[in-house]
Amino acid sequence: MAVIGASGYGGLQTIRLLLDHPEFEITFLGGERSSGKSWSDVNPFIPIPNNLTIEIPDPDKIAQVSDFAVLSMPNGRACQIVPHLVKRNVRVIDLSADYRFRSLDKWNSVYLNESRSINRKDTALCETAVYGLPEWNCNAIRSADIVAAPGCFPTASLLPLLPFLNQGMIEYDGIIIDAKTGTSGGGRSPKENLLLSESSETISPYGVIGHRHTPEIEQMASHIAGQEINIQFTPHLVPMVRGLLSTVYAKLRDPGLTSEDCRTVLATIYRNNQFVEVLPVGVYPSTKWVRNTNKAFLSVQVDTRTSGIVLMTAIDNLIKGQAGQGVQCLNIMAGLSEDSNLPTNTYYP
Amino acid sequence: MAVIGASGYGGLQTIRLLLDHPEFEITFLGGERSSGKSWSDVNPFIPIPNNLTIEIPDPDKIAQVSDFAVLSMPNGRACQIVPHLVKRNVRVIDLSADYRFRSLDKWNSVYLNESRSINRKDTALCETAVYGLPEWNCNAIRSADIVAAPGCFPTASLLPLLPFLNQGMIEYDGIIIDAKTGTSGGGRSPKENLLLSESSETISPYGVIGHRHTPEIEQMASHIAGQEINIQFTPHLVPMVRGLLSTVYAKLRDPGLTSEDCRTVLATIYRNNQFVEVLPVGVYPSTKWVRNTNKAFLSVQVDTRTSGIVLMTAIDNLIKGQAGQGVQCLNIMAGLSEDSNLPTNTYYP
Amino acid sequence: MAVIGASGYGGLQTIRLLLDHPEFEITFLGGERSSGKSWSDVNPFIPIPNNLTIEIPDPDKIAQVSDFAVLSMPNGRACQIVPHLVKRNVRVIDLSADYRFRSLDKWNSVYLNESRSINRKDTALCETAVYGLPEWNCNAIRSADIVAAPGCFPTASLLPLLPFLNQGMIEYDGIIIDAKTGTSGGGRSPKENLLLSESSETISPYGVIGHRHTPEIEQMASHIAGQEINIQFTPHLVPMVRGLLSTVYAKLRDPGLTSEDCRTVLATIYRNNQFVEVLPVGVYPSTKWVRNTNKAFLSVQVDTRTSGIVLMTAIDNLIKGQAGQGVQCLNIMAGLSEDSNLPTNTYYP
Amino acid sequence: MAVIGASGYGGLQTIRLLLDHPEFEITFLGGERSSGKSWSDVNPFIPIPNNLTIEIPDPDKIAQVSDFAVLSMPNGRACQIVPHLVKRNVRVIDLSADYRFRSLDKWNSVYLNESRSINRKDTALCETAVYGLPEWNCNAIRSADIVAAPGCFPTASLLPLLPFLNQGMIEYDGIIIDAKTGTSGGGRSPKENLLLSESSETISPYGVIGHRHTPEIEQMASHIAGQEINIQFTPHLVPMVRGLLSTVYAKLRDPGLTSEDCRTVLATIYRNNQFVEVLPVGVYPSTKWVRNTNKAFLSVQVDTRTSGIVLMTAIDNLIKGQAGQGVQCLNIMAGLSEDSNLPTNTYYP
């Protein structure tokens, strides 16, 4: 079991989730910023059994000691190593966006800056990579060589939306997603706007109109709806470390439906998905309720005056929105119970 | 100059703004929770010149020493004293919702719990009270006996929305307001959900569908649009003390309009309103930029793919969203420059 | 296994820690504020297997279904039920201060307000109750009928201090403890000073000179030192939910000792205590490193200029500082491994 | 009036305080990171009258348009330009540490890293520069060519300590300062440990034993006491943007003194210093009370059991701890009232 990108939040989180996993052993830690340092130098607060040294990720070395690799690297970097890993029969869970689009051309256009400096030729890998939303793609994940774990915003937004798109219960036009995330979504590399002094005691929108998660959401939404869907997606930065809330607005086709009806739809579709909890009507999710867990808490409310439906999801952006979902996929790929070693209860408050 | 409700945040804020005002002198402090205590007992950190004692608000006594009264009381309480003040020629700025609806029946239905325990007969006062949004009602405010300062959410949401409704540039149907506020909007009385332990490190929606600011927004929006408008409004509680961000979604009628066009609309309409700042296209407001000021920072972005328009406003919920707007109205009523003693620059960060 | 005081933070935390404990089953939930409600009504975000109803704590009923009871009640309340539980052979872990002093007179004087309204007669129980600091009292805890879990400040302060007192390495005079805690230490009952609006973005001292944890610290320090010790203890409220940092200042008797020497003392004494981690010299503990764990991170630094020794401890005030320590004691009392089901690794950040 | 280092927090704060100053006009903005950009590009939220362009600080150009310069540059940078400014008759307020030590040798040893790469020859300037603590050095500041504004920790720690040292009321040995600061003290340049994700929800000590403010505090304390004094100083990083609390521990020489006695000492000495507020005994300062103001709130408590005295000060680290104190000095140097344009009341909460 290799973890590449070990010192960022995604890697750190993955390692934390695998620490006492009954079936996996971490045998390789890859990283660039921290290569050459031992794990405990960088993270004295989370001891790992053998205190591995962080190494430059070399495919041969990784393949010698690992059947699986979780990659938590910047966009445009995973795709430079994944083909080599796959060739060596290392199955990959990639937490970046590199394999989230079935079409490489699409990726090239959405991740324009990243694509400029590299010349990807892994069209076929993009086509076979599986979008790692286990609640909708479990079977494909099981046998995949490459699983692309979804982005945090797509995870929170698609979970409540897909059932209604799938059933044709909402209008395809005019879907609006207003999402709010904590600062850990911006990563561990220092940036001025993520300093506590700057991001505390304030909220602001960012990436209005052109955020890269928009086409990712649209790809999956369109796939499930069976037709092209455009979505208005606006993320906001919230003064908290972890947590992501997505508030989704759409119009019901049948204005007679009630909140209870819609709750039943969600509860039915997700009845066997232990990480998805559908709240009673009138109870709205708080991100604190899912912090440090792999849960998604969903709620739905219908406004009979406007025929509007309001869908709300809270997740932990670093767990169900990133590393936890990666481990959930890993469990499935390895033939284990999908909840192996994944936390479901928060420490409150 | 009387301030009633002096120990809550609205009253405290009003007093702070009037402290060194060149034209007003605070001569009466009213309150119930704190009556009998001197100001400095309750707030050792903000000295006021004469260290007044907080008193039960008696209309005769107030009228003896004041031409104006700012009321910052719970809903359903201001309306029990306002008729007595008006009869005694005290002009009132009410920060509560009691006079925000022209129709008393409407108030009775929206503030159902409050209306149950009282039997308001001040229909006429409701009809003549002026909705205190100075950027749209300045002339009426000048001569009003009762000004009802708007709610914080309506202020932030109406400022960017009214120009487009007024010009008929957006569709009347399907307007969505997703708003985010700090905890001070919930007041100073202790409540479990507003404890730092509960409300820190989390974001959650509340009052989904039925929030009382919805009909208030709709009343003004309908008035300006010249036709009945229904709005989908969802507030969220954000882990910060002050600040309110409103993100408003609508559809443009003319899909050819650009962000720059729409920015020009806002800039033109508000060119003489010094408290409204329209940001350059691509710059999005952060509530920290307006903290402790009476400013509203507006931004607009158009999505040509969806014909959607995204309007964003940041205000300080306790200043432009409450006490500052009250003082702005007070300045206008007193024939002063509307910006007398109102802060416009924040201390950053 | 009964938990009394289930809806406060101490009770909630205890329940969370016992949720998936391999050896204990929660069979009774006691509470007053929430009695009659089912658990999931109060805490929809943490499901418990059988969704018990919270009941008024009746000793007979508790004794029927439980061998152990964890009490998380206000000071002066536990002592009203503990004698009845002990008589019925229920072994008690009390998270309040009621049994922390061997002398009832001492308790009466320190908890003066509480003692006024009750007339405690359980002198003998006070004398036999064991102070539940497992790193120092493990054997006594094993066979105790009543364990009084230490306060959060005493836990964090005593752990680094006792070794040096025990060895006579520091002067007994002039010990200063400057401690800092998050707001959850103030409990879940709404209080104005604990509102996010009030306690966020600020730090302040409280209880200067007369804090009730002072005599608790002094009792244990004196006991270990073998002589009366007076301590200057000042707590501060920090704008964070969880976490407690204690910075302890004392004078070394032997000015030739180095930081490494003193680190060795700590490391040696705690070498078999898996919840105490002594950091390398120059690494200082951050409360985030122990959040949601039962760990205490210790660090020591010597100033050769002043012969001063600075001891630092970080704990999670609700886990190692309260409920986790309670469960640690419970494990010991039940003859289990003391770390059964107790978390040791945080989710960072 | 020139401000150099305009885009950091010190410069930004200085500019904000000078914005509507009745006697000063900002005529030059100097900076390196942002040189060539207009002010509004960098800070769209604080408009300045003439929207100056930030320029590389050239002494000739500065001298042409300014009588005074406030420098807010990294340590070791101010000293490279100050001699040139002084020669051109520009009077300097330096917010860095470059001129805080009368002895250049001392500076070279304390700021070892900085001194290595430069070879300072301005011994004479160091000797004539005035330590800008106006409450103690007002006369010297008035005629100074160079004022070195004190560090934030020294300001908060010296204000309550100096009166007792001056009067010989406390023992010179065993003084302990435990200080707590918000993250803005760490500046605006991105650093991992100052990210919200890292520094939120945690408190930790740093610079234990060797912090550079120790010798600065000792220099002034020794000067006032008339004898060499060693101090144990430990700073802590608190999850808030602004604010600094210093808790100072010492031993009274006369054990019969009460808290009221000691409060009287402070109140008497500072009776003419409007920025120093001595709180009633039993009221402890909260940094929120002084946020965005130039005030220092002091409190004192005596423990008769231990003869200990506990001194507490709250300031805003960026105002009284930095830029506000700089402007206070500037006012004095310019022969104005020292409180010109300096804020004294916070917006609470």
Task: Please summarize what this structure is.
Chain A is of the alpha/beta class. In chain A, 32% of the residues lie in helices and 18% in strands.
The proportion of residues forming helix of chain A, as a percent range, comes to 25-40%
Distance between the termini of chain A: 33 Å
C-alpha geometry of chain A: globular
- Quantity of strands of chain A, as a count: 14
- The number of helical runs of chain A is 13
Please give the order of strands in the largest beta sheet of chain A: 3-2-1-4-5-7-6
Question: How many whole angstroms does the radius of gyration of chain A measure?
Answer: 20 Å
Overall pLDDT score of chain A? 96
CATH architecture tag of the largest domain in chain A:
2-Layer Sandwich
Portion in beta strands of chain A = 15-25%
Strand and helix order of chain A:
EHEHEHEHEHHHEHEHEHEHEEHEEEH
Helix/strand/pairing category of chain A: alpha/beta
Parts with pLDDT < 50 across at least 5 consecutive residues of chain A: none
| Total number of domains of chain A | 2
Largest interface: A-B, 48 and 48 residues
Q: What would CATH call the class of the largest domain in chain A?
A: Alpha Beta
CATH homologous superfamily identity of the largest domain in chain A:
Dihydrodipicolinate Reductase, domain 2
